[in-house]
Each structure stands twice: as C-alpha cells, then as structure tokens.
Amino acid sequence: MTSQTGDAGVPTLDDPATDPFDVARQAAAALRERTGVERHDVALVLGSGWGAAADLLGEEVASVPSHELPGFSAPAVAGHVATTRSIRLPDGRHALVLGSRTHLYEGRGVRRVVHGVRTAAAAGATTVVLTNGCGGLDRSWRPGTPVLIRDHLNLTATSPLEGATFVDLTDLYSQRLRDVAHAVDPSLPEGVYAQFRGPHYETPAEVTMAGRLGADLVGMSTTLEAIAARHAGLEVLGISLVTNLAAGISDEALSHEEVLEAGREAGPRISRLLADIVGRI
User: Fold this and answer.
1) Which of 10, 35, 54, 250 is 20 to 30 A from 125 via CA?
2) E strands along 66-164, which residues?
3) Has residue 263 been placed in a domain?
4) pLDDT tens-place string over residues 135-148
5) What is the CATH number of the domain that holds 195?
C-alpha cells in the first residue's frame, strides 16, 4: 500500500481525506523557515518563455528546490524551472516566484496543479501573476506577442474547487491590474484564453470550436490556477505569450521545441515588461 504521508510526515495531496489548504499552510511555513521572509506580497507563476523575468524583479533572498516543500512535485516538462524563489523588490516588498508548475496532463491531480497559488495565499500574497506560453488564433499576433488575459474558457472538464464551493468569477482577471499593465505598455492586446487538458496539441477543429466560443488563445494551463487563486482571495493578472499560431491557423506543424524557441527569443523583452508591471502593482 502506498503511504499517504510525505518524507517529513506531512499528509500528501493524494489523500482525499487531507485538507489541501493545510498542506498549503505547511508549505508556506516551510518557505518562511527556508527563506527567512515572514510574508510574500505578490506571487508569480512563470510559464514557458517567462522564466528570465525573475532575475529582473529585484534581489534574490533565497532559492528553494520546489519538491522539497510540502505538496510540491518536481517538474515533468523540459524548459520548466524547478525552484521557488524569494525576491526582494526595490520597494521592500517580497515576491514569491513559483517556477515549478504542475500541469493537469501530468496526471498528478488538480490539487497539485493549484497547490502553488494556494501556498502563495498562505504565505501572505494578495496578488498573483499567472503567465503561460500558448497558441494564438489572431494572425496579427505573431510569435513573441504578449497578450493580457481578460477572461477564460475552462475546457478541462474539471475544477479545483471541491464540494459545494461557489465562487463568482465575473471579474476573475482584475481590471485594475490590467490597467496597471496598460500603463506600462499601452499597446498590449487583450484576449480570452481557453485551457484544454493536453498534453496533445489541439486539432484544427478544436481550435475552430474554441474560436467560435470566444477564445483568442489556447493552451494547457492557467485557468484552474486562476479559479483557485480567486477562491483563496488573490487578485489575478494573467499574461500569455503567443509562441505559435494555433493548429489550423498556420500551415506549420506544432512542436514543443517551437514553443521553447519562441520563448527564448521573446525572453528579454517580455521579462522587462513583466518586471515593470510587478514594480507598479
């Protein structure tokens, strides 16, 4: 029989009897101990292409291998960072950079997908910035274009909320934070992000369906984290990096290497953008 506790005796998220918020609180306590930072004010989840932004935010206080914190797993995807970083911003606040994102397609359960944002809330954060690399449906958004998420379509057929937990998502992606982003770069477009389960890329017919439903962007992350963040009381800013045109929009075949390459090329520009936005939040 598989043990339901971790190496340190912490109940795992795999046990249905475990309260996932208890594990998040224990992870936040471990962060305080490992980083020496009592409170983190803002959290960032850095998806494909966004990782270099952490180096521009401010002075790193500490870096912790994510899987050493209760409830976290080592990343399963090439190009995803496996550390959680505490960074002191120029104004004295502290940012928590969650570099080890768990995706739904990894099969580790929804609780693990959203554990990072729940830990951020338990660590004191009031704002979370969710980023991703994604496919674009608008031909004018060339690879390397950052797009603010104004709303989403959750096409995963699941939710991070358990039981009779009712949360209003009307203004999930904060207009206030989008206004801050527009103050940094007035040219930033906005769009609706659709999350599919993955790990396969969408078919042209699925992309057409998503477009008819109102989507401008398609990917495999973010919406479940955003829902959990709202439930935990966090204000949410979502930013996508268009790494490729979605299936059927372009004649080119899709590949993960293409996603990584687009992220590398856009990295310096979008990293500076994100650091400037966080500095104004």
Assistant:
1) 10
2) 83-88, 94-98, 127-136, 145-154
3) yes
4) 999 999 988 999 99
5) 3.40.50.1580
Binding site listing for a purine D-ribonucleoside: 202, 244
Q: Binding site membership for phosphate: which residues?
A: 48, 80, 101-103, 133, 221
User: How many structural domains compose the chain?
Assistant: 1
Domain enclosing residue 54, as ranges = 20-280
Collapsed DSSP state (helix, strand, coil) of residue 54? helix
Active site residues: 202
Assess if residue 166 is contained within a domain. Answer: yes
Stretch 161-187: mean pLDDT, rounded? Answer: 97
Angle at 231 between CA 227 and CA 236, to 5 degrees: 60
Residue 249 lies in a domain: yes
Q: Give the whole-angstrom CA distance, residue 132 versus residue 146.
A: 10
Residue 1 lies in a domain: no
Give the model's pLDDT for residue 2.
Answer: 33
In 10 A of CB 197, how many CB atoms? 13
